Amino acid sequence: MAALRPCRRALVSPLCRAFSGPGCRLAPERAGERRDTAPSRVSGFCPPRKSCHDWIGPPDKHSNLRPVHFYVPENESPLEQKLRKLRQETQEWNQQFWANQNLTFCREKEEFIRSRLKAKGLELRTGSGQKATLDAEEMADFYREFLSKNFQKHMCYNRKLCAQCGA
Questions:
Q1: Helix (H, G, I), strand (E, B) or coil at 69
Q2: What does pTM read for this prediction?
Q3: Consecutive sets of 10 residues in the chain, 167 residues long: mean pLDDT of each?
Q4: Is 87 left (phi over 0), alpha (psi -120 to 50) or beta?
Protein backbone atom coordinates (compact mmCIF):
# COMPACT_ATOMS: atom_id res chain seq x y z
CA MET A 1 0.00 0.00 0.00
CA ALA A 2 2.80 2.43 0.88
CA ALA A 3 4.33 1.97 -2.58
CA LEU A 4 1.17 3.37 -4.18
CA ARG A 5 1.30 6.63 -2.25
CA PRO A 6 3.02 9.43 -4.16
CA CYS A 7 6.17 10.84 -2.68
CA ARG A 8 5.47 13.99 -0.65
CA ARG A 9 8.47 15.74 -2.18
CA ALA A 10 7.17 14.95 -5.67
CA LEU A 11 3.86 16.69 -4.86
CA VAL A 12 5.22 19.73 -3.05
CA SER A 13 7.67 20.81 -5.72
CA PRO A 14 5.14 21.08 -8.61
CA LEU A 15 2.61 22.78 -6.33
CA CYS A 16 5.25 25.22 -5.19
CA ARG A 17 6.17 26.05 -8.79
CA ALA A 18 2.52 26.31 -9.80
CA PHE A 19 1.68 28.87 -7.11
CA SER A 20 4.88 30.85 -7.04
CA GLY A 21 5.90 31.05 -10.67
CA PRO A 22 9.29 30.09 -12.06
CA GLY A 23 11.44 31.27 -9.14
CA CYS A 24 10.78 29.68 -5.77
CA ARG A 25 13.18 31.42 -3.41
CA LEU A 26 13.40 31.96 0.30
CA ALA A 27 12.90 35.31 1.88
CA PRO A 28 16.08 37.31 2.47
CA GLU A 29 15.67 36.92 6.23
CA ARG A 30 15.46 33.12 5.87
CA ALA A 31 17.89 32.67 3.00
CA GLY A 32 20.69 31.62 5.34
CA GLU A 33 18.54 29.20 7.33
CA ARG A 34 19.31 25.53 7.08
CA ARG A 35 18.01 22.50 8.86
CA ASP A 36 21.36 22.14 10.65
CA THR A 37 21.38 25.72 12.02
CA ALA A 38 20.24 26.82 15.45
CA PRO A 39 16.49 26.51 16.00
CA SER A 40 14.22 29.53 16.25
CA ARG A 41 13.63 31.35 19.55
CA VAL A 42 10.21 29.78 19.99
CA SER A 43 10.75 26.16 19.00
CA GLY A 44 13.16 23.86 17.23
CA PHE A 45 10.92 23.76 14.17
CA CYS A 46 12.51 24.81 10.88
CA PRO A 47 10.69 24.46 7.54
CA PRO A 48 12.47 23.18 4.42
CA ARG A 49 14.74 25.72 2.75
CA LYS A 50 12.82 25.87 -0.52
CA SER A 51 9.39 26.28 1.04
CA CYS A 52 7.05 28.70 -0.72
CA HIS A 53 4.33 28.82 1.91
CA ASP A 54 3.81 29.80 5.53
CA TRP A 55 4.59 26.89 7.84
CA ILE A 56 2.97 26.27 11.19
CA GLY A 57 5.26 24.61 13.71
CA PRO A 58 4.54 22.39 16.70
CA PRO A 59 3.16 24.01 19.86
CA ASP A 60 5.63 25.99 21.92
CA LYS A 61 6.25 24.36 25.30
CA HIS A 62 5.77 27.63 27.22
CA SER A 63 2.94 29.43 25.42
CA ASN A 64 1.19 26.37 23.89
CA LEU A 65 0.80 28.42 20.68
CA ARG A 66 1.90 27.07 17.33
CA PRO A 67 4.50 29.44 15.82
CA VAL A 68 4.18 30.48 12.19
CA HIS A 69 7.21 30.75 9.92
CA PHE A 70 6.16 33.30 7.34
CA TYR A 71 7.08 32.90 3.70
CA VAL A 72 8.30 36.06 2.01
CA PRO A 73 7.77 36.07 -1.76
CA GLU A 74 10.55 37.40 -3.95
CA ASN A 75 8.30 40.14 -5.36
CA GLU A 76 6.62 41.12 -2.07
CA SER A 77 4.96 44.53 -2.32
CA PRO A 78 5.43 47.16 0.40
CA LEU A 79 1.83 46.60 1.52
CA GLU A 80 2.32 42.81 1.70
CA GLN A 81 5.53 43.36 3.65
CA LYS A 82 3.74 45.66 6.10
CA LEU A 83 1.01 43.05 6.63
CA ARG A 84 3.55 40.24 7.15
CA LYS A 85 5.54 42.31 9.66
CA LEU A 86 2.36 43.17 11.59
CA ARG A 87 1.46 39.48 11.66
CA GLN A 88 4.94 38.62 12.93
CA GLU A 89 4.79 41.29 15.65
CA THR A 90 1.35 40.06 16.71
CA GLN A 91 2.60 36.49 16.86
CA GLU A 92 5.61 37.46 18.98
CA TRP A 93 3.38 39.52 21.30
CA ASN A 94 0.95 36.57 21.65
CA GLN A 95 3.80 34.16 22.34
CA GLN A 96 5.18 36.41 25.07
CA PHE A 97 1.81 37.07 26.69
CA TRP A 98 0.79 33.40 26.86
CA ALA A 99 4.22 32.18 27.94
CA ASN A 100 4.09 34.65 30.87
CA GLN A 101 0.45 33.84 31.61
CA ASN A 102 1.05 30.09 31.62
CA LEU A 103 4.12 30.47 33.84
CA THR A 104 2.11 32.55 36.32
CA PHE A 105 -0.74 30.02 36.21
CA CYS A 106 1.54 27.05 36.92
CA ARG A 107 3.39 28.84 39.70
CA GLU A 108 0.19 29.97 41.43
CA LYS A 109 -1.43 26.56 40.99
CA GLU A 110 1.53 24.86 42.69
CA GLU A 111 1.45 27.41 45.51
CA PHE A 112 -2.30 26.86 45.95
CA ILE A 113 -1.93 23.08 46.07
CA ARG A 114 0.99 23.32 48.48
CA SER A 115 -0.90 25.67 50.83
CA ARG A 116 -4.07 23.55 50.80
CA LEU A 117 -2.14 20.35 51.48
CA LYS A 118 -0.21 22.05 54.27
CA ALA A 119 -3.48 23.29 55.81
CA LYS A 120 -4.72 19.68 55.82
CA GLY A 121 -1.45 18.51 57.37
CA LEU A 122 -0.48 16.51 54.26
CA GLU A 123 2.85 16.27 52.46
CA LEU A 124 3.41 17.02 48.75
CA ARG A 125 4.09 13.34 48.17
CA THR A 126 2.08 10.37 49.44
CA GLY A 127 3.64 7.45 51.27
CA SER A 128 4.04 5.60 47.96
CA GLY A 129 5.92 8.55 46.40
CA GLN A 130 3.06 9.79 44.23
CA LYS A 131 2.30 13.49 44.06
CA ALA A 132 -0.60 14.41 46.36
CA THR A 133 -3.57 16.01 44.64
CA LEU A 134 -6.66 17.99 45.50
CA ASP A 135 -10.19 17.10 44.44
CA ALA A 136 -12.08 18.88 41.65
CA GLU A 137 -14.05 21.08 44.06
CA GLU A 138 -10.88 22.44 45.66
CA MET A 139 -9.25 23.02 42.28
CA ALA A 140 -12.42 24.83 41.11
CA ASP A 141 -11.74 27.33 43.91
CA PHE A 142 -8.28 27.96 42.49
CA TYR A 143 -9.50 28.34 38.89
CA ARG A 144 -12.28 30.74 39.95
CA GLU A 145 -9.84 32.81 42.02
CA PHE A 146 -7.20 32.84 39.26
CA LEU A 147 -9.68 33.96 36.59
CA SER A 148 -11.11 36.66 38.85
CA LYS A 149 -7.65 37.94 39.74
CA ASN A 150 -6.57 38.01 36.06
CA PHE A 151 -9.84 39.33 34.60
CA GLN A 152 -8.42 42.80 33.92
CA LYS A 153 -5.27 41.36 32.35
CA HIS A 154 -7.38 39.24 29.96
CA MET A 155 -9.61 42.23 29.13
CA CYS A 156 -6.51 44.28 28.25
CA TYR A 157 -5.19 41.38 26.18
CA ASN A 158 -8.44 41.20 24.18
CA ARG A 159 -8.50 44.98 23.68
CA LYS A 160 -4.89 45.04 22.49
CA LEU A 161 -5.51 42.08 20.20
CA CYS A 162 -8.51 43.81 18.66
CA ALA A 163 -6.52 47.03 18.29
CA GLN A 164 -3.68 45.18 16.56
CA CYS A 165 -6.08 43.38 14.24
CA GLY A 166 -7.95 46.59 13.44
CA ALA A 167 -11.28 45.24 14.69
A1: strand
A2: 0.64
A3: 40 35 38 33 68 89 92 92 94 94 95 92 83 91 95 90 67
A4: alpha
